[in-house]
Design brief:
This protein is α/β, with parallel strands linked by helices. It has helices spanning 15-25, 67-79, 92-101, and strands at residues 7-11, 29-36, 39-45, 53-57, 84-89, 105-112, 118-123, 129-134. InterPro entries: Glyas_Bleomycin-R_OHBP_Dase, Glyas_Fos-R_dOase_dom, VOC_core.
Length: 135
Amino acid sequence: MDITIHASFLPHDDPDASLAFYRDLLGFDVRDDIGYNGLRWITVGPAGRPGASLVLQPPAADPGITAAERATIAQMMAKGTYAGILLATDDLDGLFERARAGGAEVVQEPVEQPFGVRDCAFRDPAGNMVRVQQR
């Protein structure tokens, strides 16, 4: 059996800022941008890799989520503790500098971790943790 990850989901609270971050700053391709009832779902992915996507979605869009749950999600997003993603690149320093120059909130500059991985971290416009490892 061959199973792959087709898409992962991250919340956004400003679709245009998230689109600019993933498309313009990280260089992802925009695969879809769908609006419905005043909300937007934006699918992006690494250029040249159509099999892997990231869906930027409105938080708590599920009608089964209560007002209290929506408030909790909004609080967690504001703190940067709600969601995250781990990316990999051949040019960690270049990507980090591009993210910093583009205004991304730096969480950790590139560093060699004790477990043998060199990585860095920053937040996207919605507060999601974006960790990047050197390939």
